[in-house]
UniProtKB/TrEMBL annotation, chain A:
Transmembrane segments: none annotated. Residues 1-30 are annotated as: Disordered. Residues 73-327 form the Dehydrogenase E1 component domain. GO terms for biological process: branched-chain amino acid catabolic process. InterPro entries: Alpha-ketoacid_DH_E1_comp (IPR050771), DH_E1 (IPR001017), PdhA/BkdA (IPR017596), THDP-binding (IPR029061). The keyword Thylakoid does not apply. Its cofactor is thiamine diphosphate. GO terms for molecular function: magnesium ion binding; oxidoreductase activity, acting on the aldehyde or oxo group of donors, disulfide as acceptor. Keywords: Oxidoreductase, Pyruvate, Thiamine pyrophosphate. It comes from the Bacteria. This is Pyruvate dehydrogenase.
Automatic annotation (TrEMBL), chain B:
This is 3-methyl-2-oxobutanoate dehydrogenase (2-methylpropanoyl-transferring). It comes from Streptomyces chattanoogensis. GO terms for molecular function: branched-chain 2-oxo acid dehydrogenase activity; magnesium ion binding. Its EC number is 1.2.4.4. Its cofactor is thiamine diphosphate. InterPro entries: THDP-binding, Transketo_C/PFOR_II, Transketolase-like_Pyr-bd, Transketolase_C.
Amino acid sequence: MTVLEQPGSSRNKSSLPGPPPDWRPRVDPAPLLPDAEPYRLLGTPAARGLDADLLKRLYAELVRGRRYNVQATALTRQGRLAVYPSSTGQEACQVAAALALEDRDWLFPSYRDTLAAVARGLDPVQALTLLRGDWHTGYDPHRHRIAPLCTPLATQLPHAVGLAHAARLKGDDVVALAMVGDGGTSEGDFHEALNFAAVWQAPAVFLVQNNGFAISVPLAKQSAAPSLAHKAVGYGMPGRLVDGNDAPALHEVLTEAVQRARRGGGPTLIEAITYRIEAHTNADDATRYRTDAEVEAWRAHDPIALLERELTARGLLTDEFAAATQDGAERLAADLRGRMNQDPALDPMDLFTHVFAEQTSQLRDQAAQLRAELDAEQTPAEEARP
Amino acid sequence: MTTTAPAATRKPATMAQALTRALHDAMAADPTVHLMGEDVGTLGGVFRITDGLAKEFGEDRCSDTPLAEAGILGTAVGMAMYGLRPVVEMQFDAFAYPAFEQLISHVSRMRNRTHGAVPMPLTIRVPYGGGIGGVEHHSDSSEAYYLATPGLQVVTPATVADAYGLLRAAIASDDPVVFLEPKRLYWSKDDWSPDAPTPVAPIGRAEIRRRGESATLITYGPSLPVCLEAAEAARAEGWDLEVLDLRSLMPFDDEAVCASVRRTGRAVVVHESPGFGGPGGEIAARITERCFHHLEAPVLRVAGFDIPYPPPMLERHHLPGVDRILDTVARLQWESGWTEGRGA
């Protein structure tokens, strides 16, 4: 960060004693400001220089991600998922977030970010445990360095900052990437997390997926900021505005932010402009608050279609690659469908097992009560009669 | 708790000193223990409980945070996820409320949510209670909020030795502990052995502070000295009161409470927290469920009134005092007669 000379603009000259000159440090806001327009690569001359393998990797993940979204939505209709907040249309954000991180880094997803967790390597069934409803977190967060999918908005952001701070205190070059939506930026925890991150210069990256709506509430009712990325400046960290459907652009911006954090350069706020093509969840009716025409306009800016154009132009989308990509996506969907169609194994006694490391006498009593009820259920009615 | 320190090394010490020593010893014993909060670094905390710790252990281990309680507790969650053992200071009881979402939605649930994979070895120190002449928002007894949240341990010392022992136990615990510090007892003194501090007191065990036969006063934290004073005054009325210090509200020591009440046959719960929805109702229900046939009278409560905490010039009318406790003991149906001399 650039520290400016002490203030004293000509417009503000006073002959009276002012505050002593060390009244506060001055950070030059100019380098922190986001661009006026979202950063893009696809369709620009710079896209031609992009690594072919990276483009193909991104494309394969997007196609796989879209198929995952479609399959998970279908599972809600079959009663196999209690609810699914789809990231259809936001696959570039999900995939780029996962690919920008190293193994040792941590991802802090919200409930809409199951695809990011899957793209990072998490078993999709484990990723969907929360939404199937057989347990809250279906995986060991330490194993994948993926924090539990977080439902209370923006509350996982301070966790990311604390973890990044702790890693830095321990001397580990670990970065934490936290994901939040446009609605989540109104929450107090968003503010507190960004403020702590900047004060501590924590190796954290905040990715705001601005998908236009917080359930039904449009961004205009959510914030009067010039952009959500501009909020970064008030905390003293750089803000980046990027096309959230331009996978290579997003991947580049995220990777830069992660590398900067890893080098000790502190946190970055990234706003990705995207759109939630599906309703908030399968239980929501989006026609009550937006028009079909608006959705169609965004379909023309679909992340997969955009990347496909680039691949085609460069001759990278061979029949063989396209078929292999499609095949991989179908295998993911078939595996997910097959395993989600089996009833999960439930152990009601799990309700008491992990509340405390050391069971309290109160919970021991209650567990015994449930055990007895379960045993009674097992006993045929004839025998149970005295 | 019995103390094992040789009498020669014992000298008057305050609860505040014992708490500072507990933090110091925990930090010295375990490099993953990190203190964080508002003013805990350079200043040593507004009650000076962290005095000198930033200087001795460095500001990374005893750090002044931005003034934001949700941020303090939320970042502590992340630090705990990475293997640290954060000890968070909330400056005053009523200033902890912004952190409640983190406490309720994450701290209390993280172990359970992850099938035990992500424990939360956090200690949240909260100076609580009234009687210090504090202006609005500085005197709340907020324990009922914490007790209503499954997954939290709630502990409160009433003696200098327990301040040390329970705080060490809280920091050593692999589960989150809300450690309620009765701020009006910060400057209370006991003979204590700062050179050979008492071993760690177990969390979840109550302690009889005064043996008696007529009735049991069940209390904790700031009300313990009041109950002991009331028990002394009750002798003039012919009552020999037992005083039980709960020390840990969750886990709750049903065994010790029931053993005492079965012996005395009468019980009064005393706390500053408002009566309606307060711990006393739960305690009275548990006694009634477990000791009904041993009771000579309904379990009674002396609690704070069901009012927002009063301004300092009126707080003495609100806080449970000796007279109100004795008036309540007098209502324990002594006239029924047939049990007279029970247990004597």
